[in-house]
């Protein structure tokens, strides 16, 4: 069972990088194989919505992190094996076409597959792997493949010398024709292992923690010291949400860190549902049906839709899913920023109030409309937090640390004056008048 997400959310959270910018996927990617790299991407594209599977995957990675185990195969083996097996797929699709592999490629491919079979047998018989209860499902799957009588000769094969032409031909028929599907299953298990070890290594290096998934529908999110994982010197924050306080109304001046905080929490929730470690000091969360963020919502010029209309459509989509009884995590950064202040005020109050009544879901709404916050205080399930700005003379100083309450900090004009924009404009105008 997979978590509901959409492209807007993965873009907001920068799950996958664009152009020359890396994403969260790249941060976790230390895989050795092309297949492992593709598998990691698939896992990020399909977060889980099943408590047992989330906790099982998390436990596997946690155990590998404790073992400090390196990937037990040479990457070159996979280059040879994959080239060899891909050719089998091409021939299956176009049987009339002659094979593109030369004798040496076949020799290398057969040798690589035999080596992988033998090394996987040793791996599954390692005491630390046998004792890893969470990995038992995968270990049994690998053991079952290797125990197939068809592979017995390969397991006994000595690779100290060059295989004979007859042996290579026989193994080639076995691997690329008779047992091709089984060999692919074995490679898939190795790709999963590559991912687990890659993520385990990141967890150790970055000191990421392993969240605990709770039952779906309880509406609980407990985060301590959460921060955005790509920051160099992050400031951690604590978040506590449940059915009694299921919505956070967030205020703060521009540049105070609201968007970064929203990304920090949302990324932790997203990555936790993948079953991966997160950038925090501790985390417990109720499993959700979906995560939807709206942080960088663009205008849709292709269909003539304004920013405001896109916001309306986004809220409508959330409303439909909430009314289906789904447990969602929903984030809006500056809700209804695309319309005038009066409409934005009224819409923010009405929509936020309606969200707060869906107590099996969690919401964070940021806004500059502090007056809306005052009206929302009548809702018992809404909590109010802000990111403060302190003034050091004419210079704003940001702590990036959450505080309770609502702030009316507005320092936009101070920043504009500090940058000398008005002075520059006036000088330019005066100079022009003088010349005339």
From TrEMBL:
Gene Ontology biological process terms from the UniProt entry: mismatch repair
Zinc-finger as UniProt keyword: no
Stretches of the chain forming a coiled coil according to its record: none
Domain DNA mismatch repair proteins mutS family as annotated: residue spans: 245-433
InterPro entries xref list: DNA_mismatch_repair_MutS_C, DNA_mismatch_repair_MutS_core, DNA_mismatch_repair_MutS_sf, MutS, P-loop_NTPase
One function term, GO molecular function aspect: ATP binding
Keywords attached to this entry: ATP-binding, DNA-binding, Nucleotide-binding
Entry keyword annotation includes ATP-binding: yes
UniProt xrefs under SUPFAM superfamilies: DNA repair protein MutS, domain III, P-loop containing nucleoside triphosphate hydrolases
Protein name: MutS domain III
Source organism: Chitinophaga arvensicola
Lineage start: Bacteria, Pseudomonadati, Bacteroidota, Chitinophagia, Chitinophagales
């Amino acid at each position: 069972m997979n978590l509901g997400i959409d492209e807007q959310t993965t873009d907001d959270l920068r799950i996958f990088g664009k152009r020359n910018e890396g994403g969260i996927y790249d941060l976790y990617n230390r895989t050795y194989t092309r297949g492992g790299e593709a598998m990691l991407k698939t896992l990020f594209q399909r977060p889980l919505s099943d408590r047992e599977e989330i906790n099982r995957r998390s436990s596997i990675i946690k155990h590998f992190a404790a073992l400090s185990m390196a990937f037990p195969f040479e990457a070159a083996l996979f280059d040879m094996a994959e080239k060899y097996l891909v050719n089998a797929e091409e021939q299956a699709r176009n049987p009339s076409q002659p094979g593109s592999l030369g004798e040496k490629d076949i020799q290398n491919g057969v040798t690589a597959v035999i080596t992988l079979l033998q090394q996987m047998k040793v791996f599954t018989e390692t005491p630390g792997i046998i004792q890893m209860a969470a990995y038992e499902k995968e270990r049994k799957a690998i053991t079952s493949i290797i125990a197939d009588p068809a592979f017995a000769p390969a397991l006994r094969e000595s690779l100290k010398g060059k295989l004979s032409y007859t042996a290579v031909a026989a193994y080639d028929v076995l691997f690329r024709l008779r047992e091709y599907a089984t060999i692919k299953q074995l490679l898939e298990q190795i790709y999963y292992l590559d991912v687990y070890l890659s993520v385990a290594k990141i967890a150790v290096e970055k000191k990421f923690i392993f969240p605990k998934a709770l039952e779906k529908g309880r509406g609980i999110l407990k985060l301590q010291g959460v921060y955005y994982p790509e920051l160099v010197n992050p400031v951690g924050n604590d978040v506590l949400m449940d059915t009694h306080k299921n919505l956070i109304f967030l205020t703060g001046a521009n540049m105070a860190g609201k968007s970064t905080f929203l990304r920090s929490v949302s990324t932790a929730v997203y990555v936790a549902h993948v079953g991966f470690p997160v950038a925090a000091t501790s985390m417990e969360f109720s499993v959700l049906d979906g995560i939807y963020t709206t942080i960088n919502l663009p205008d849709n010029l292709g269909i003539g839709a304004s920013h405001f209309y896109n916001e309306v459509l986004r809220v409508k989509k959330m409303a439909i899913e909430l009314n289906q009884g789904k447990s969602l995590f929903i984030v809006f950064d500056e809700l209804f920023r695309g319309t005038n202040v009066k409409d934005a005020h009224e819409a923010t109050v009405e929509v936020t109030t309606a969200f707060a009544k869906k107590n099996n879901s969690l919401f964070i709404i940021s806004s500059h409309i502090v007056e809306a916050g005052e009206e929302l205080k009548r809702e018992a399930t809404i909590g109010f937090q802000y990111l403060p700005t302190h003034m050091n003379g004419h210079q704003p100083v940001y702590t990036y640390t959450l505080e309770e309450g609502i702030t009316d900090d507005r320092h936009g004009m101070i920043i504009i004056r500090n940058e000398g924009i008005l002075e520059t404009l006036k000088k330019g105008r005066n100079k022009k008048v003088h010349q005339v």
